[in-house]
Amino acid sequence: MSKRQNGVVESDEAGIRLDRWFKRHFPGVSHGQLEKLLRTGQVRVGGRRAEAATRLEEGQEIRVPPQVADLTSRPGAKAQSAPHDAADLKKMILFEDADVLVLNKPAGLAVQGGTGLKTSIDAMLASLAEGKHGKPKLVHRLDRDTSGVLLIARTPFAAARLTESFRYRDTQKIYWGLSLGVPKPERGKIETLLSRRGEKMIVAGKDDESAKRSASLYEVVDRAELRAAFVALWPLTGRTHQLRVHMAHIGTPLLGDPVYGKPMPEGFPGGELGKGLHLHARRLIIPHPRKGLIDVSAPLNAEMRKTWKWFGFDASAKARFSEQGED
């Protein structure tokens, strides 16, 4: 795209937001700069004023002022990445095609960058940037300490369709965890209002205007007497730390949770169990951007396998909710 050419929305960009389109084609333009261009009418979609959140349609013309090109690199240029990032990502791949990449994210690796973090999945994805589509895009998130299925979009078309599926909850996300204590009843639904307090989420009251509804299903798959349980979890909403807060709320926090957990009970063989948060995104079922379903399961990480082995839990077990196809 030259300095004085307007942009035209291609077929695989239909449905994405205008700000996402700019980020892909003109990565040097900050969100603040784009907002100013939109407020002053210098950027237009189909000859009309637009907002950053405007959804684009195939064939629409986007007016791009000449000065924008001076701020940017060419479309599809690779961001900086470590030499080994591509190889490390390939080791995580559970499924891939032209539109989608599904990874088994290790526990301890952040999905997005932040203060004090040396790397993240998002930064590593720059090593896979190619052609006009540029860097693959994150579609959803996992906590840094949570392992398991992470979905990545290779194209703007896939990103728009997959994001839409998450927005309208046309997905099934199944997690596995190890709880301290056994939930009662052993199968049920947890509904609370959640509100943020600093870096932590809390169960809030109805008078908290910032609180948002949250809901999860859970089921005990297996138990070790009354000491611990292998639980399957289905988030019906997508709040930060939701499953961790919910399990703590009913008195059975997840093993190894540094924020919402509790000390390991007496009699637990601390040195023989796995380390870290015992929460794993086991399975994801979501419509493919073009046709059919994506249905991917991730094997447990090494630390959780260690714990499962000690308790004698079946790492290939199925829970009733998942077998019935409920979310």
General description of the model:
The strands form two sheets. Strands 5, 6, 7, 8, 9, 10, 11, 12, 13, 14 and 15 form an eleven-stranded mixed sheet that branches. This protein has a four-stranded antiparallel sheet with strand order 1-4-2-3, with no helix packed on it. The protein has 327 residues and is of the alpha+beta class. It is built from nine helices and 15 strands. The protein has three domains: 7-70, Structural Genomics Hypothetical 15.5 Kd Protein In mrcA-pckA Intergenic Region, Chain A (Roll); 85-167, Pseudouridine synthase; 172-324, Pseudouridine synthase (2-Layer Sandwich). Residues 1-5, 72-79 and 323-327 have low confidence and may be disordered.
Concise synopsis of the structure shown:
With 327 residues, the protein is of the alpha+beta class. The protein is 21% helix and 27% strand.
